[in-house]
Amino acid sequence: MWLPPEIWIHIFLLATSTAYTPQLYEIDYIPFHNPPQEQERAMLSLADQTMLALSLVSREWHLWTVQFLFQTVRLSWYGSRRLHKGLQQSASGVRCGQWTKRLELSVIEHEDPSYLVKPADIFLSCPNIEILVKYEDDLLPHSAEGVDLARLRRFEWYYARYRDGDHQFATEDDDPSRGQDFLREVVRNAPNLRYLSLVKRFRGNPRLGPPPSSLLLPALVTLHVQSISGDVWTEIETWSFPRLKVLRVDAAFIGFTRLSGRMWPTVEVVELLQDQGSIPSPSEIPFILAICPNAIELNYYIEYVQPPPVDAFVSASVQVVRLHFATNHDLRSPTEDPEEDELWNHFSAHFDMLAGPMFPALKRVVLCGPWSFVAENERFELFKQTLVGRSCKLDSE
């Protein structure tokens, strides 16, 4: 049966897309968006393998699928030479590197010391890259000096781990800056960067490096900062974000900001991240809204944030609150008496906060994640009635 190429391409996309696939290429903020977990990574890998298999069926199918095969490329220790050459080949009159939108860096060692493939080489072959991800297992030094990054819109940067985890063993070839020099160069050369994520996922002591440099990020809209150490905070504290609208942070960021006193007056959306490694404080919500005095939207994981006292603060600007009901097993210790159920006491305190005088401008509460069990409790019904009484809309996503 003959079908036009457009139909075949649509079929290929349906066969190889997962629920997470669109988020790989998202530039702007999505509430509660997190990196793919193990199951999601497995599905993405299977989708890639399926697309590769489809490309081998016939010459025509290869021409139709090649744009998707090169949409994301990963520079690692294996296959770098073949990748570099493949990006410079052509299909249907278009160089394969032209299709690439996302570059992932995960270089533990060089595959061939006589044929070094660097991120700068990939950028030269792939002029349309919009998303750069530098993973924590990207251990070798890179340079972005002289590279045109005007098309780069999103940069996800992970503080490079050590080869033996927390014990800080490194080889002489490893980047002594743990990726911070590369971070600085990319930010300096990417004037149109809209989304910047800075994450540290291992303990390790802060490094003692060169003094931070003052940088201007003129187009940045979203800043994601998670589990950072003092050396990373010292770096970004000197940076300017004149157009920043979205701030995604955790307890570590709040702790550093308490010491510095920095204000974030341009921020309109605040998200408190799912923080597994810290003891939540009831002062987190009042503090983050105090340093973001013009925030109109507050998003947080309800089981990971302690509700403040009902008279702790008043936010006259917040109009929307999103609650994500991701499970916190430390809270899930129900007793036979529902009135003594720690989890529901926790929920009720949050509901009282939202229904009380703290948010006089509140117009909308949005429930996200696995929240359906909440609707079965009578205390939630009382909360719902209170919101309706003050003309506040209750939605779900």
TrEMBL record:
Keywords: Signal. Residues 1-19 form the signal peptide. It comes from the Eukaryota. This is F-box domain-containing protein. It comes from Mycena metata. The lineage of its organism: Eukaryota, Fungi, Dikarya, Basidiomycota, Agaricomycotina.
